[in-house]
Amino acid sequence: MNESGLQPVDYKVLVxxxxxxxxxxxxxxxxxGGQTEREQWAETKGTVIAVGGFAFMEKGVPWExxxxxxxxxxxxxxxxxxxxxxxxxxxxxCNDKDIMAICI
Length: 104
What we know:
Blueprint: E1 12-17, E2 21-23, E3 29-31, H1 37-41, E4 43-51, E5 57-58, E6 61-62, E7 72-76, E8 81-84, E9 90-95, E10 99-102
Antiparallel strand pairs: 1-4, 1-9, 2-3, 4-7, 5-6, 7-10, 8-9
């Protein structure tokens, strides 16, 4: 459900990024705010929240497979724009071509 207060248009996609996690020496998984190896790769996972009317289409033909709302996707971390939703969650608004894969 889209509670962000933002509906993408055209070829845009609204994604809620997953937090980057890392394991300590003792095996405890923690979220980190500093730069991590994953950030150096400049990619991240996120959940598709909303899509614009032409997202995931090429000349009027849908991509196959095309990410759906609720799918976990791998995307370019620094693409698009950061947006603080009306629900207090930070989202990323990017082009559909910034989605690199659907996580299965």
